[in-house]
Structures are given as structure tokens and as C-alpha cells.
Specification:
Chain lengths: 412, 131
């Protein structure tokens, strides 16, 4: 058996570490191994490297270096932001111990999980709809605001359909509220998918907190960052050390942080080139799928989304069957089907677009990256229509193949 | 999730896919929890399943269980397949994770439904099938 070609189209799940990034990181595993909190030479060498990385990450999002808190990844960044800000509300002049949070119906599972946990503890949560295009309306945020609203947490770009949310408008709304004397309303955005793929500036967005993850931008897993605007009060979720300006106790993961810094530098320098490349492949792919496969639906607003991502619902079939069939041909993708997530409910994101269960279960995410080639796309376009056709031939939902036959009682 | 070689083979090359045009017994079942569906069409002659076809919608274990079921029952008598259990399917597949085993249960239920549609489950009425 010949070894199948391998095509990785799951860059929204994770990216391979860039070799240049790994090279920058390696010395910090061996000879430059110091603990960044140590006073001696080894410690100071590590400290300097962490601070250089901090400046690179700050530069990627238009922040100051001292507004960057290193954490273990996007999920921890979201936990620290949301829980940290909500717990701090107890100390506000009004002493809000149980307040109100506004979020969207299509947040990443970490934000969804944190908001569910807050709700269990007595907080109130408003989950804004995203309509059929997958985009929150700023007017809905305005309407949802209450006197006890402490936090608005809305992702910058969705992880399943890539739609870009109007954070700048929401940021302007929050600034208006502040100008009218409201002091304790904060705006958090999960920018894990957006970072490195579209230009980011925390001042243009008007956000107070912003979550990042290293492994979505060609650095290793295990490192993330939270931007915390100067003046935002946050209760540390990890206690027992003074690291990260008292916001996150624990020895800094120096090699991962160095890698994250290097990756941020390359992401900033190469962003235009990468997004142009990803967009080109994605557009070739979508044109090809539309031409060769009938009964499909592209999910999310096609203009306001990340350049590297395409989400397609294939009618009559279940996403995981297609995922495994593609995998057997060497092609790696993700699906919104329930089986994959280990739950019984299909993708809440696709459902939030108003799509039915069949479309939600048949949704596949194709996410492109800087190392994909046109040949990769050609191969996928050759294989995919055949696999879809094969699975549809099995489907009792497919009008062509089924329900015409009835048991003829006279034969029995 | 690691799938067995047999599993991958059935996903890549489903056996007896489609609806038999000259079936005299059919059954369709839906898993009420996850919505997976399986449809079985049988051609039964003189108490023996001469041909079987399946259609399936749902997670890969459901598709695979449909495929392997048709393989296990083709050529067998109604009596023989009457004893077919979930475990027989799982064994033929090299096992399934426990949370996927409902797929095998759905396949067995669909078989029972198909057999009862042709009154084949009752050995006392074999004459109801055309000879």
C-alpha cells in the first residue's frame, strides 16, 4: 500500500511550530535554563528573554509590555480574564457580589464553560444571538446592558466559522458608557483565533482584556497570554507566587514564552503575506467545492471572516463519517458533529446560525495555514467530492437513494 | 479515537450499501437520543436471507454497524439471524468504545424490525415469503 499524501487543514485546532521559532526556543531548555525569578546571572538571562518576548507580544496587539500576563494557553487566559474581573467586582463601591455578564451564543467552549459556572454560582448571563451570519449586533449589546453588568466577553473571531465580531463598535459603546460616568464595565475578547491572522490593536478595539494562545500562531502548545489594560482590577486565579505582577503565580515557562515571542514577531512581519496566501487557497478550495459538490451550505458571513477558514455543511451526511473518510485519505479537518465533541448535541455555533440539526451535524471546518500549497488544495478537491458522494449513497436522508421503496404487502 | 482495521475498511468500503429494489422485508430505526438512523432492506426466500442492503445516517459506528450487519446476515436463515446479538457485531468489528456501542444496538433493532415487517421472525409463517 502506498503511503497516502498528508494534508493538514486543521490550523484552527493547532499549528506546527515554525522551525525558526523552535531554534529561538531551544537554548532556553539547556544552557539558558534559569528561573526568571532568580537573582543570579542564569535567572536574569531568563528574565531578559521573557521580557523581550513580552515586548514582541505587546507589539503584535498594540499594547504595552507591562500589560501582558503570561499563562498556559487560551483557556487559562479566558479563565483569568472572566473569573478574575468578576471576582474583583466584590470590591467595587457598589460591592457587586453577583453581577451580570454579556457574552455571545458562539463563544469558545472555555468561555461558554466559565459563563455557565458563573451562572451556577448566581451570576446572570446574557448570551447574545448571532443571527444567520454568525455576527453579534452592537445594538443588542447596548440593549442587554444593565446597571450591574460587570463584563462583556465577546470573541474577536469565531473558531468554527471564522466570523469577525464588531469589537471596535462594542469597544466604542463601552467607552461611551465610561464617559457617562460608569466606572466598572469591562470588555474582554477572546482573540485566540484572530491573532496572527488579522491585524490587532487593543486601542482600536477598545478592549480591556484580550486572550491569546501561542500554538495557533506556529509556536508550541502550553503558552498563552492575557492582555490586561492598565487600571483593570483582576483577582489572580493562581496564587502562591509573585510572578506576572501578582496576576499569575507560578514559574514562567521560559522556553514556551520565548517561542511565543519569536512566533509573534514572525506573525507581525509576515501577516500580510500569510493571510494573502491562506485566503487564496481558501478561495480556490471554496470555488472548487461549490463547483463539484451539490447540496452544500457555507456557514457564516463570507466577507467578514478570517482569511484561513472555511466551514461547509454537507447535506444528508454526518460530519464525522466524512472526517474519518478524509483522514483515511490523509486529509485532516474538524467537524461540528456531536460524536467528535463527545456530546449528544451538534455544534452550538452552527445551531446558533439557525441551521437545523442535519446541517449542524454535517458541518466540516477546513482551516488553512502558511505551509499548505495549491497542490494540497487540488488533492482535497479531487478526493472530497468522491467521498461525499460515497457517503451520500449510504444516506437514508438522500432523496435520490431512499424512501421511494415501500414494502409491497402483496408480496408478503 | 483509535478505530480497528476492520472498522476503517468498512468505512472506506461499505458493503451492500443502498436499498434493494426487490426487497420483501424492510425496517428502519432511529436512535431517539442522537438521531442516528439505519434502514435495512432484505430479500428473503424460503426462510433464508439471500440479499441485504443498508442505508445509514449518523456517526461512523452506525455506518459501520450497518455494513457489517449485512455481511453477517447474508446467506443465513431467519432462525440463525434471530439469535444475532449486539456482541456478535462488536466482535466482528474488533470492538467499539463503550459510548459507541449503541450503534450495534441500533443495528440489531433494525434487523428485528425488518424481520417482523416480513413476518419472518415467526418460523410458523414461512409461507408468507414468496417461493
Amino acid at each position: 500500500m502506498t503511503k497516502a499524501r498528508r494534508v493538514y487543514l486543521d490550523h484552527s485546532a493547532t499549528t506546527p511550530a515554525d522551525r525558526r521559532v523552535v531554534e529561538a526556543m531551544l537554548p532556553y531548555l539547556t544552557e539558558k535554563f534559569g528561573n526568571a525569578s532568580s537573582v543570579h546571572f542564569f535567572g536574569q538571562e531568563a528574565r531578559a528573554a521573557v521580557d523581550r518576548a513580552r515586548r514582541e507580544i505587546a507589539a503584535l496587539i498594540g499594547a504595552r509590555a507591562n500589560e501582558i500576563v503570561f499563562v498556559s494557553g487560551g483557556t487559562e487566559a479566558n479563565n483569568l480574564a472572566i473569573r478574575g474581573v468578576c471576582e474583583a467586582a466584590k470590591g467595587y463601591p457598589g460591592k457587586i457580589s453577583l453581577g451580570h455578564v454579556i457574552t455571545s451564543a458562539i463563544e469558545h467552549s472555555s468561555v461558554r464553560g466559565i459563563c455557565n459556572a458563573l451562572q451556577k454560582n448566581g451570576w446572570e448571563v446574557t448570551r447574545l444571538p448571532v443571527y444567520d451570519e454568525g455576527i453579534v449586533r452592537t445594538e443588542d449589546v447596548r440593549v442587554a446592558l444593565r446597571p450591574d453588568t460587570v463584563l462583556i466577553s465577546i470573541m474577536l473571531a469565531n473558531n468554527e466559522i471564522g466570523t469577525i465580531q464588531p469589537l471596535d463598535e462594542i469597544g466604542a459603546l463601552v467607552r461611551d458608557e465610561r464617559a457617562r460616568g460608569r466606572r466598572h464595565l469591562w470588555l474582554h475578547t477572546d482573540a485566540v483565533q484572530a491573532a496572527g491572522r488579522i491585524p490587532l490593536n487593543v486601542d482600536a478595539l477598545g478592549c480591556d482584556l484580550l486572550s491569546l494562545s501561542a500554538h495557533k500562531l506556529y509556536a508550541p502548545k502550553g503558552t498563552g497570554a492575557l492582555f490586561v489594560r492598565r487600571g483593570v482590577r483582576l483577582i489572580s486565579q493562581n496564587v502562591g507566587g509573585h510572578q506576572e505582577r501578582e496576576k499569575r503565580a507560578g514559574t514562567e515557562g521560559v522556553p514556551g514564552i520565548v517561542a511565543f515571542g519569536a512566533a509573534s514577531k514572525f506573525a507581525r512581519e509576515e501577516m500580510d503575506e500569510r493571510s494573502k496566501h491562506d485566503r487564496q487557497l481558501r478561495d480556490i478550495f471554496e470555488a472548487g467545492v461549490a463547483e463539484h459538490v451539490a447540496d452544500i451550505v457555507f456557514n457564516g458571513n463570507l466577507a467578514r471572516r478570517l482569511p484561513n477558514l472555511s466551514n461547509v455543511s454537507f447535506r444528508f451526511i454526518e460530519g464525522e463519517g466524512l472526517l474519518i473518510s478524509l483522514d483515511l485519505q490523509g486529509i485532516a479537518v474538524s467537524t461540528g458533529s456531536a460524536c467528535s465533541s463527545g456530546t449528544l448535541e451538534p455544534s452550538p455555533v452552527i445551531r446558533a446560525l439557525g441551521r437545523n440539526d442535519e446541517l449542524a451535524r454535517g458541518a466540516i471546518r477546513f482551516s488553512f495555514g502558511k505551509d499548505n500549497t495549491e497542490e494540497d488544495v487540488e488533492y482535497v478537491l479531487k478526493v472530497l467530492p468522491q467521498l461525499v458522494e460515497k457517503l451520500r449513497a449510504l444516506s437514508p436522508l438522500n432523496k435520490v437513494s431512499s424512501f421511494e421503496f415501500q414494502v409491497n404487502p402483496s408480496e408478503l | 479515537m483509535p478505530y480497528s482495521e476492520a472498522f476503517k475498511d468498512h468505512i472506506a468500503n461499505p458493503r451492500n450499501a443502498g436499498e434493494l429494489p426487490d426487497a420483501n422485508a424492510t425496517g428502519e430505526e432511529t436512535n431517539p437520543v442522537c438521531g442516528d438512523r439505519l434502514r435495512l432492506s432484505l430479500q428473503v426466500r424460503e426462510g433464508r436471507i439471500e440479499a441485504a442492503g443498508f442505508l445509514a445516517y449518523g456517526c461512523p459506528p452506525t455506518l459501520v454497524c450497518g455494513s457489517i450487519l449485512t455481511e453477517l446476515i447474508t446467506g443465513k436463515t431467519i432462525e440463525e439471524v434471530g439469535n444475532l446479538k449486539r456482541k456478535d457485531l462488536l466482535d466482528a468489528l474488533g470492538g467499539l468504545p463503550s459510548r459507541k456501542q449503541h450503534a450495534a444496538a441500533l443495528a440489531i433493532e433494525t434487523l428485528r424490525r425488518a424481520l417482523s415487517s416480513g413476518r419472518a421472525s415467526s418460523p410458523s409463517q414461512p409461507e408468507r415469503f414468496p417461493r
